[in-house]
Amino acid sequence: MRPEHRQLLEEGRLLFLSPFEARQRRATVELAQYRNRFVAALADKILVAYAGPYGKTEQFCREVLAWGKQVYTFESEANAHLIALGTRAESPGWI
What does the domain layout of the chain look like in residue ranges? Predict the structure, then answer.
């Protein structure tokens, strides 16, 4: 653990949440997908800046939308397929 994190943890100003055990050191595609689901389940709103058509990130958006979560993306022609899925298109100024 980084020294700057230790003080914040002791003060109760920082919280680390992880679905993984401390010994887990190596990322895999499956673990990354599990992590993303974990974080999305905790979030009120999810921002996906871009997802390629028919890719894993688009599939993730479909899954999270099916949970009833609010998913946002940038208003852009490149994100038209995400907007068609039901993500909310916003201009970058809302962030």
Answer: 1-41, 43-95
